[in-house]
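Bug report (template v2)

What were you trying to do?
Predict the complex of my protein with magnesium ion.

What happened?
Run completed; filing so the output is reviewed.

Input:
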Amino acid sequence: MDRSTIAAIATPEGIGGIGIIKISGPKALDLASAVFRRGSGFDDENGGGPRAGLSDEFRSWRMYYGRICEPVTGRVLDEAVLAVMRAPHSYTREDVVEIQAHAGPKVLQNILDLLISQGARPADPGEFTRRAFVNGRIDLTQAEAVADLINATSDAAVDMAVSQISGGLRSYLESVRQALLSVLTTLEAAIDFPDAVGEDIDTEVQIGILQDAVLDPIRDLIQTYEAGHFLRDGLQAVIVGGPNVGKSSLMNRLVNRNRAIVTEIPGTTRDCIEATLINQGFPVIFADTAGLREDPDPVERMGIEKTREYLESADIVLFVVDAGCPARSGDLRLFEELADKRVILVVNKSDLSAPDRQFDQPPRWAQVPCVHVSALYGTGIDELRQRIADCSIYSDGMQNRRFIPNWRQKSLLDQIYQAVSDALTGLHGHGSFELASIDLREGLSRVDEITGHYVAPDVLDGIFSQHCIGK
Ligand SMILES: Nc1nc2c(ncn2[C@@H]2O[C@H](COP(=O)(O)OP(=O)(O)O)[C@@H](O)[C@H]2O)c(=O)[nH]1
Ligand SMILES: [Mg+2]
């Protein structure tokens, strides 16, 4: 166990009202008392301010007003307030002191340097949260949610991260783990003591527990991954279609900004242009693309290649056609290429569609949702936004569910699902308890990797290095 005392500037770089330096570890209080003098500067005139003195004079969950001074020269670095949180009632479960000073980069750096000269070590990214995890205050799902909360860009993402930090996912997985463990213990008892225990085991009961208390909850979590991922990272919506159908106009309408240039000249948009909209609480990142056409110039060709790259990673494709023009052969081909994508057909320029200009929709296109809009006048845009929200499988009901927002957790859940399914198949087919228990052990280790009961150090390094310094 690392017994060093770490320190870092916890507030963002730049100039502001208050900047915070955080210290955590066994020497946090000693360090604070070495550099802190209680009281205002006026006390000096009365023979020097009272030194905080011994670090054990600091009381937990108290704030102290004073100055940060270089112990040898007495130079005052800033006026400050100390917040003292003694172990184990702190973020890291160690002694923690937060120094609230003025948020000038030089001021904060001076204080940090002073603490380091007194024996603190600069904290690594995420090291405070890592200590909270190592010291058992939070599990890994909670630690990961801290980074999600800091990075959240929508209310729904905030709610999701807060629920995970509060231990929602942790307790859900804990009950899965208990159920898995109980079946495993039963099977292993039967393996070890076939005469005494083996006879009495009702395999159907064990199958029932695995199905209801392990497999179903894991499947539910996996299904929420997509919604969780959209909430956290945003939904990537790529706008494609032929030249001049109104793709750029549509994006501008959707995000209420003139983000992309609109002209009547085909081939205006050459690069992919992104703009973000918070749609019903979750972020949608629209990408306006170069129109796909048959004989592009070299620059346009590069734009079209980029369009294809965007399409690869698209969560949803807005396929735009002109209400007045029948589907072109390029459209038909593109549509076929998008067979495995979620597509919304957007029939634009509906303001122009007269009976003789009716959009002629190929039968296969009828399988995808279709919205008639006018990007020019804004009609149908709300309906389109609603369709996009529907595609994210996000609805009010989802808000109360636990999400699996990160890929690491999702891939481990897939492995648990597979292992437990294999065990169930074996048990259904009257296979050996030995084989089933190997699968269940596998499932159990993957649960422990999610919560951090057991996880390899390099995995932890990867997770915490994504946090910022001072968190
Ligand atoms: N009447 C009408 N014109 C539109 C509509 N949307 C776009 N346009 C016009 O169509 C032309 C091409 O639009 P633009 O957004 O640049 O198309 P893009 O090439 O697909 O990006 C411009 O002259 C737009 O003003 C619409 O809904 N109705
Ligand atoms: Mg355009």
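What did the reviewer find?
The domain at 143-230+403-465 is CATH 1.20.120.430 (Four Helix Bundle (Hemerythrin (Met), subunit A)). Residues 42-50 have pLDDT under 50 and may be disordered.
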